[in-house]
Amino acid sequence: MGITLERRFLLIRAALALSTIGLAFFAGIIIISSVGKDPLQAYYWLFQGAFSPPAIPETLIRATPLLLISIGLATVFKARIWNIGAEGQFYVGGMVTAILSILLKDAPPSLAFPVIVLVAGLGGALWALPPAILKATYGINEVITTLMFNYVAIYLVSYLLHGPFRDPVSMFPETETINPALWAPIVVQGTRLHVGVLLAFAVVVPLAYFFLRWTAFGLKLDVLGSSARTAQYANINVTRLVIQAMLISGFLAGLAGGFEVLGIQHKMRLELSPPTSPYGYTGIAVALLGYLNPLLIALTSFFLGGIINGSMTMHRMAQIPVGMAGIIQALIIIFVLASYFVEDKLAKKAMERLKLW
């Protein structure tokens, strides 16, 4: 029995993904060697700090915001809507979470916690709404508007943390620590694994896979992604679909920010996202490397979350700068884009062969 065309493309995609990661790490070897360090030792400590059994909980924690953000990005990317604003939506979700947690610090946790989580997602969705309307109604390029909204969000958060919501005790640009009763519940004692990790991997991933692959909504996104004209011929309300997809993407990014505050930071800080590997931008690489498939995105999130986590161990044990993880991720993004180009060429050749047959 021969290999079907669909399975053949899956194998090609797997080979391209592995090649992408391999090329990025090979380039990393050259960079590490050029500064007089041992790349094998550096990578040993990188993977030891990322995927050894004691490191797995922290890797899952790092992977969770990447997973939520990248699944939201996959939703819009399927329709060829380029939301580059997940970083801003992530920060807005985190800021809204901190403010609401302070306001509801004396409320019953069983009521306050789900409300705060929901509002965190809504904060991210509302931040994505203006670019969505501009794109859907006026055709304004969403890459520009969402990118600009990132800076607006980060500077707005900076103003709030330096002004009305600055911690009155430490006077650092951060909010006061939220009530421990409102912290995300720990699911594995002795670790920092919180309920947000469980929600992301056990609930969001299967739901996203189902909705993107097996529902009319997912089909409409695919049709719009293939051709806006085809979507119009299919009587799809493109304006509504663009706004819906952007709201979902923003909601998941805001939710990621909310769980980062409730589960890890327990206050809002300017460094909510790692400076060397910002979650909102790294999520783009995760979504593309996972080929917009939630199951593959989950694996990719775990892998890149491990790279972020392991970079600390690599820095401590091999004296390699933490920013090396950011360089590897940037190289992965570059090679991912190149792999998409290669895949497109292979797809065109395959279609030409089918026409000849």
Describe this structure in words.
The protein has 13 helices and no strands. The chain is an all-alpha fold. The chain has one domain (16-29, 37-356): ABC transporter involved in vitamin B12 uptake, BtuC (Orthogonal Bundle). The chain is globular, with a radius of gyration of 21 Å.
What is this structure's SSE topology?
Layout: H1 5-34, H2 39-51, H3 56-77, H4 86-103, H5 109-138, H6 142-162, H7 195-214, H8 216-226, H9 228-233, H10 238-265, H11 279-289, H12 294-318, H13 323-356
Can you give keywords for this protein?
about 350 residues, ABC transporter involved in vitamin B12 uptake, BtuC, mainly alpha
CATH overall fold name: ABC transporter involved in vitamin B12 uptake, BtuC
Whole-number mean pLDDT? 89
Which stretches are poorly predicted, pLDDT < 50 over at least 5 residues?
none
Helicity range of the residues? over 70%
Secondary-structure-derived class: mainly alpha
The level 1 CATH classification is: Mainly Alpha
Radius of gyration: 21 Å
Secondary structure tally, helices: 13
Q: What coarse outline follows from CA principal-axis ratios?
A: globular
Largest sheet entry: none
Strand content: under 5%
Counting DSSP E segments of at least 2 residues, the number of strands comes to 0
The number of domains: 1
Looking at the overall shape, the CATH architecture is Orthogonal Bundle
Secondary-structure element order, as H and E? HHHHHHHHHHHHH
Membrane topology: Multi-pass membrane protein
Main location: membrane
Protein name: ABC transporter permease
Transmembrane segments: 12-35, 88-105, 111-129, 141-161, 193-212, 241-264, 284-308, 320-342
